[in-house]
Amino acid sequence: MAHAQPPGYLDDLREVTGDREGGTLAAGASFRGVVVEGDTVGGGGQMSPVRTTWEPPACYFAPKWTAPEFKQWWTGHVLPMAGNMESPEFTSELTREHKKLYGPDGRHEDHNIARADDGTWWGVHINPNARGTQEAMACYLDESYVWVEHSDPPPPGPGVPDAAMLAELAYEHVDIPELSFEVSPADAQKVNLATWVWLPASELDPVSVTARLDGYANLSSTVTARPVSVSLDAGTADATVHAGPDGCAVSPAGVIGAEWTSARKGETPPCGVTYHRATHGGGGYELSATVTWEVSWEGSDGSGGDLPSGEFGSSQTVQVQEVQTIVR
């Protein structure tokens, strides 16, 4: 372990190059900590955990610098900043510690420049979505740096990702595609006439992402989200929602609800809404469909399990008309 840094300097100086780029959780010039690849840009958005206070880790310990970058960070930022501090004792102590660790006779001579191709320096990464939280700030209370050879397994210790943590970090980067649910009638709805709602199988494919340590590909986890049901909100209290006790479930055929056909005339839809009051004045009701996704993960080491189910929804405005009848 190589200790000693003014609190907060690591994150401020090293990660200002970008909090997130695509599926990358912590940006950097060469080594980016945990990298997430797969369905990370679905065009819709990220899931919200269902009925849980669970949150992904605020930080983790992972690859941070190449040897030249680590040397530049010390000599270009830490030591000059220490020299500008009001405590000569701290400056002297930090300088002695640096020489002891990275000097000609140090344990990591010249910051391991001669071994630059063999490994990387590891440090704390802050999960971008946790920046500014107390949990994130606490990650720097006992900051340290470790040199890890590429051929070695990740060192055990607090915050070092295992397969389960990689899965948790990947969870919030599963991007759900923008879902397009179908309704019938396709145009304006009618008062007291059931509106059928369905999502075809093509809209309900599972989505997956894989998280791995950058430069240490022997450990990874794949998170997969599968749609299981949809809940409807008619957008008004003057309506009846047609669904099961847990919403509209995915059928064995892989669809939610059913498409209306003339053969179904008079039936109650397995998934739908009946509006009891018309819309007026150019406004409409916001009919929303929120899909629940079950989430599981599988690690490269054979481990696996479940993560909290997630929700993601979309909505569309519907007009509801009164049915006009003629009495003779």
Describe the structure.
The protein has 328 residues and is α+β, with helices and mostly antiparallel strands. The chain has helices at 9-14, 67-83, 88-102, 134-138, 163-171; strands at residues 2-3, 34-38, 43-46, 48-49, 59-65, 119-126, 144-149, 175-177, 182-184, 189-190, 194-199, 207-213, 216-233, 239-242, 248-249, 256-257, 272-275, 285-299, 304-318, 320-321. The strands form five sheets. Strands 2, 4, 12, 13, 15, 18 and 19 form a seven-stranded antiparallel sheet that branches. It starts with a strand and ends in a 7-residue tail after the last strand. 35% of the residues are buried. Residues 1-31 have low confidence and may be disordered.
State the oligomer: single chain
Largest sheet: 7 strands, antiparallel
Count of helical stretches: 5
Tell me the β content: 35-45%
- Runs in which pLDDT lies below 50 for 5 or more consecutive residues are 1-31
> What is the H/E order?
EHEEEEHHEHEHEEEEEEEEEEEEE
Any idea what the radius of gyration is? Answer: 27 Å
Helix content: 10-25%
How many strands? 20
What class, by secondary structure content?
A: alpha+beta
Mean pLDDT over all positions:
79
Envelope shape = elongated
N-C termini distance: 93 Å
